[in-house]
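> run fold NAD(P)-binding protein
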Amino acid sequence: MQDTVLIVGAGPSGLVLALWLTRQGVKVRIVDKSDGPGTSSRAMAVQARTLELYRQLELADDVVAAGHPAPAVNFWIGGRQRARLPMDTVGKQLTPYPFLLLYPQDRHEQRLVKRLKALGVVVERQTECLGFEEHATGIVARLCRPDGREEDCEAAYIAGCDGARSIVRHQIGAGFPGGSYSKFFYVADVQASGEAARGEAHVALDHADFVAWLPYDEHGSGRLIGVAEGHETQDAEHPDSLTFDDVGHEAIASIGLRVEQVRWFSTYHVHHRVTDHYRRGRAFLVGDAAHIHSPAGGQGMNTGIGDAINLAWKLAAVLQRAAPDSLLDSYQAERRAFALKLVETTDRVFGFVTADGSFADFMRTRIAPLVAPLAYGIEAVREYAFRLVSQTMLSYHEGPLAEGRAGEVRGGDRLPWVAGADNYGPLSNIGWQVHVYGQPHQDLADWCHWRNIPLHRFDFGPAQQAAGLEQDAAYLIRPDTYVGCADTDASVDALEAYLLRHLGPAT
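> ok
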């Protein structure tokens, strides 16, 4: 099956890759050695950028309705609320989803599985990839079926979405440099009461006894994520022996949260690693198989989903002979650069909130309480924090597919959302398109018709100008809704030269 993509692993990254490929007409086979979606997952946050991309498959509204949109994140130090990031007001001009959506990964996976099944693809459970061989026109993977029988699976490409212990990464010999933190994290699904249990997210930064409260609703149901302080050494070999009673409760109490019932509790080590190869030949690494890091900011699952969508349109273009194989090299160039920056950022945050010692305590409990309210009182700081956490700041400026600039928008940027203009409506079409905010000239319209690329015209006004867009410029939008090329003059020659470099002649 030389037109098929074999996906190993049915977590969120693998499921999203299967969904986006299937939607674009690519055949997939997705296998997972587990017997069903996870039941005790740790990922909770679905960021605004992920929801924007979910609009392409009409998934966003369903996911938002099933989850809990937290309108704000509160930061506590020394038993006092020191800063509040109001997502609903800071982000309302930046994205259709100005909130932090909290939606447990197990429920998230079940929804993705259901949507994939509706498209005619069923996850093959209890099926393990034992390894694969690559040849000139594809790969042959060895699969072990639920009954123990082994079979060969032929495919054009293989995508390892199989987690931190990825067999695909091991098979291609890719390194996984990084390290592990000495501290244990714990996660607990609980029923709680108190002022903090009313629907907003809360983070306490006291004496390295870090804890985050992520609500499922406005009635005290939610998840606690924190440091199992004081258990780094003695329980290193037996973290499963810890219970909720063993972890520090000072930070929990400091935000006025009272835990009344513990429904589920687990501990785990936190690692920070990024593979040195996202691609080798016909094999690709996606999600946790390529990068793992601290849970600071709720970035991990969303980054894996971003990997999958970035890779999906490129695989589809190559398999459908709409682009050369070299396009696939841009996957590593774009996504590995982001993962490295992400790990560096989450490392700094995680290190700050969990560091031991008198100096670290002094910075957290004396300096941070003074600086945080002042910083969050500045609108630009609040907006920057929202863009960073929501991943709407992510760009591919330094990537090989980014060219040009028009207004404040550069090639490689996420297309800015314009409130009230519905300029994201056409993005449900997973394909190249051109946007003009103003009046497109006839040459551009003729070129788009010849290239079979939709041309979308929008009015230009104060809202578009505030978003950084330029009147009458042309923005060539990639299938994953990032700007490929921005041209002030809306030059047909510039756009055609761009596509020839990256996709080849029109067919």
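The first helix runs from residue 12 to 23.
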